Structure formats: structure tokens, C-alpha cells
């Protein structure tokens, strides 16, 4: 039995609170900056208490406007582009990975293991390595400045395929035999047995892939040249131009706060399923 030491308990809580303060302080500064005018922010010292321009700043950010030298495109449109791209990437990755893992585990065909390892080897070829040929293909197909151009090159996922394959290998053979005796075909077995059993894994991958799709920077930077198709991460970069006085830092900080909300909401909403999908071994 571990003896409870009051001093160690206080010390552990103090360390935890210190860590939270270190992580949260930049977020607090961003929130404070978004409640002041651009002129107040560049003054020294910068105010550390919220100002009175909070709603005006967020309204300007969401609807577009401002006097900065950078982009003044509506952040609401950017967030919509980011949301659609993240959802398409997430759903596409999970769907393709489920089907490919199902085929690799339950179907017999020549060179099955070779096909799996060919998929797995693509982990060594991230977007950054193949970005030149990928851009050329997308450009030749006329997919620049489109949702297809933002999402299709990022949909395939060897990692998700590997995770689903490893889980499918743990499914008892008795389930397969029972489904076959009940007259269920391959897709019926996949839809009614494997997908429900994979619910927690799907939830964990959904969180990971949504954040991955939402935070994409390098590929959208190349694939988009029109303000109408900027994801919010690119929008923040386009807002910053020139010196400090030339930027609407209050709008930039408001956009940064808004950009953090959807991923945070997804993590909070699916936290229980996310943790269970990562640690639960009893499916």
C-alpha cells in the first residue's frame, strides 16, 4: 500500500499547475490581443488584461475586412474550407483503410503479403518527399484551388491500414464461420461484424486524422492560390505581411483562437472514445 504524503501531493499539484500555466499563457495572450485594437497591441508594454473590442475583432475576422497589409479574406470561409478538407481526408482515410485491411486479411489472392508490404512501405514516402510529382499531377488534372486538389493526395493512409489489419487479425475465426453459416457474404460480414467491432479504433483514428487534416500547411500552400480556397492555417500566414505596424495583430490572434476551436471541440467530444480506442484491448 502506497503511503500518502501531504508534501508530495502538494508538490505534484504545484508542478501540474505550473505546467498548465506555461501551456495556457500564450493562449491567454492571444485572447487578450484579440480584444484590443491593433494600435494598442504594438504599444510597449502590451496590455495583459482583456480590452473592450472583443466582439468587433471577431466579427471583422469572421466576415473579412481590416486595414492590414496582408490578406483580409473572411475567416468563416477559411474555416469552412478547413472543415470540409479535414472531414473528407478523415472519412476517406478511414474508409479506404478499412476496406484495404479487410481485403488483406480475409481475401486470398496472389502476392497478398507483397501488396500489404507495398502499402506499408509508403510510410517512407510522406507528402514532403513526393510533393513535386504530386503537384504536377494535380495541376495537369486541373485540380488546383479545389476541394479535390486539397484532399485527394492526402487520403491514402498506410498507418490506418496497418492498425485495422492488426485488429482484424485478432477477430476470432469462429465469428467468420458463424457469419458464413448464417449466409452472410463478405460485405455483410464487413458491415455488420467488423465495422461495429472497430468502432473505438475508428473513433481514435477520426480524432487523429481530423487534426491532421485541419492542420495541413505545406500541401495547401502549394495547391491554393485563391483566397476563396485558403484553409484557416494558410489564412493566418497570409494575414501577416510587412512589419509589426502593418499587420492587424488583433485579427490575426482572433483567427488563431478560432482555428483552435474545432480540433479542441472534436478532442473534447470524442475523448472517451479516443482513449478507449488506444488502450482497450478487449474488443
TrEMBL record:
Source species, domain of life: Bacteria
| One GO cellular component term noted in the UniProt record for this chain | plasma membrane
Taking the first listed entry, what is the main subcellular location of this protein, grouped into a coarse class? membrane
Entry membrane topology: Multi-pass membrane protein
Start and end residues of each ABC transmembrane type-1 domain: 79-270
Membrane-spanning segments = 7-31, 80-107, 114-135, 147-168, 189-212, 249-270
- Record's subcellular location: Cell inner membrane; Cell membrane
What binding partners and quaternary form does the record give?
The complex is composed of two ATP-binding proteins (UgpC), two transmembrane proteins (UgpA and UgpE) and a solute-binding protein (UgpB).
Family from the record: Belongs to the binding-protein-dependent transport system permease family.
* PANTHER family for the chain: ABC TRANSPORTER PERMEASE PROTEIN MG189-RELATED-RELATED, SN-GLYCEROL-3-PHOSPHATE TRANSPORT SYSTEM PERMEASE PROTEIN UGPE
General function of this protein: Part of the ABC transporter complex UgpBAEC involved in sn-glycerol-3-phosphate (G3P) import. Probably responsible for the translocation of the substrate across the membrane.
Q: What NCBIfam families has UniProt attached to this entry? A: PRK10973.1
> What is this protein's record name?
sn-glycerol-3-phosphate transport system permease protein UgpE
Please tell me the species this chain comes from. Simplicispira hankyongi
